[in-house]
Amino acid sequence: EVHLVESGGGLIQPGGSLRISCVAAGFNFGAYGMNWVRQAPGKGLEWVSQISSGGSPPFYADSVKGRFTVYRDNDKDSLFLQMNNLRVEDTAVYYCVRGVLDYWGQGILVTVSS
Amino acid sequence: QAGLTQPPSVSKVLRQTATLTCTGNSNNVGNQGALWLQQHQGHPPKLLSYRNNERPSGISERFSASRSGNTASLTITGLQPEDEAEYFCSAWDSDLRAWLFGVGTKLTVL
Lengths: 114, 110
Fold this sequence. Notes:
The structure holds two protein chains of two kinds.
Chain A: E1 3-7, E2 10-12, E3 18-25, E4 34-39, E5 45-51, E6 59-60, E7 68-73, E8 78-83, E9 92-98, E10 108-112
Parallel strand pairs in A: 2-10
Antiparallel strand pairs in A: 1-3, 3-8, 4-5, 4-9, 5-6, 7-8, 9-10
Chain B: E1 9-12, E2 18-23, H1 29-32, E3 35-39, E4 46-49, E5 63-68, E6 71-76, E7 85-93, E8 98-101, E9 105-109
Parallel strand pairs in B: 1-9
Antiparallel strand pairs in B: 2-6, 3-4, 3-7, 5-6, 7-8, 7-9
């Protein structure tokens, strides 16, 4: 069974940095592209970033380009999102999502507030 | 990045049929097709349909998807109380190189 478990969220001040993680289980992690998708409180879904199974440059939403960096460690079945220069509008539940959005983690809340 | 167009809400009576729509353009829905996600309050989204009408294992046959040009549709037959949820469509945009989402349709089962 596929499992995606996010961690590392919390409360951070505007302008701060935070790294969130996702550990995958139940499938060959290295063979799949992975995504981060976020959902602000009471709002819809917003795609954040995608990283391929290996080699290709990642893609980012315009709203996070230049501030967020996605990377992965296939040996540890892990996906990461380094978030710098955080803004209040980055407050959201961040989901780790496999490939063509077929499996979603439970999500982790990131709150940016002073 | 622009999103896909969905009606914000649809209300139907128990055991009736609901059809939800999602409109994009030739770079996303019209090219790659759309997928549909169901989200109940307080839970992560769940994939209902991909490649226009492929259903993951465990998804009821009451859910079926289709596409005509740049518009995708999700039809839910025999509506049940548990179908009351938010439904999002999504598609990969080959020009923007991004996943796009609709704003979501809140389905109410009366």
